[in-house]
């Protein structure tokens, strides 16, 4: 598995809910980020993925930004931006 460094990890952790049925803890967020192909996004590009499949009319999603790849530590660096309801 690829190594992931998540900036603003505490804010991400605080926005997660145990009620989310897809992703509800910080380890699951990092696992999902590690699954993203390295060339999927450009540096600085924002993207989101959903935390929950079944949620009233709005679906909670985490917004992230690819910061880059640290060759020294071999980590892919992402920044958590915000919780978004799509």
Structure report:
The chain has 86 residues and is of the alpha+beta class. The chain has helices at residues 9-15, 26-35, and strands at 3-7, 46-50, 60-70, 75-85. It has a four-stranded mixed sheet with strand order 1-4-3-2.
Largest sheet: 4 strands, mixed
**Beta-strand segment tally:** 4
* Poorly predicted residue ranges: none
Q: Mind telling me the C-alpha Rg?
A: 13 Å
Shape: globular
The ordered string of helix (H) and strand (E) elements is: EHHEEE
Helicity range:
10-25%
How much of the sequence is in beta strands? 35-45%
Average pLDDT confidence is 92
Q: End-to-end span in angstroms? A: 29 Å
Main traits of this protein?
globular, 86 residues, 2 helices, 4-stranded mixed sheet, alpha+beta, 4 strands
Task: Summarize the entry for a quick read.
The chain is of the alpha+beta class. The protein is 20% helix and 37% strand. The termini are far apart.
Topology record:
Elements: E1 3-7, H1 9-15, H2 26-35, E2 46-50, E3 60-70, E4 75-85
């Amino acid at each position: 598995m690829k190594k992931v460094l998540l900036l603003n990890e505490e804010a991400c952790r605080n926005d997660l809910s145990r009620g989310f049925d897809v992703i509800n803890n910080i380890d699951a967020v990092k696992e999902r980020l590690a699954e993203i192909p390295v060339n999927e996004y450009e540096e600085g590009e924002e993207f989101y993925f959903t935390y929950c499949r079944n949620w009233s009319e709005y679906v909670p999603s985490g917004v992230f930004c690819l910061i880059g790849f640290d060759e020294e530590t071999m980590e892919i660096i992402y920044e958590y931006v915000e919780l978004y309801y799509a």
